[in-house]
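Here is one chain, start to finish.
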Amino acid sequence: MLRTKSPDLLILSPLRRTWGIKMEITDFCKSLDFMKLGQAINRQNWQIALNTVQRMQRQSAETGDPIFDKNFTNLRHCLLHKDQLAAKNVLAVVIAKRAQILNHQEREEK
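Its structure:
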């Protein structure tokens, strides 16, 4: 989080432009956090993976679409127990949902 000269204006991240704008699900799905999460799980960097999932949960909640909620909860449980195989399986489901959303958006744009 960066502070600007104006005390009321916060720059959170490229995806979260301001507090007042609701994040779109397609913007969330374009996030590089999915790749970062996969790398952290593969390398067994449990703390980085947990931090990434927490950030992704917050961003997903901003979209107002509960499509990933249960998966992120299951993923956090796997990471807390350091169960790499289960975490990879849950991540595969999340990635499949992400691909469906992005493919659907791509078809609508054509």
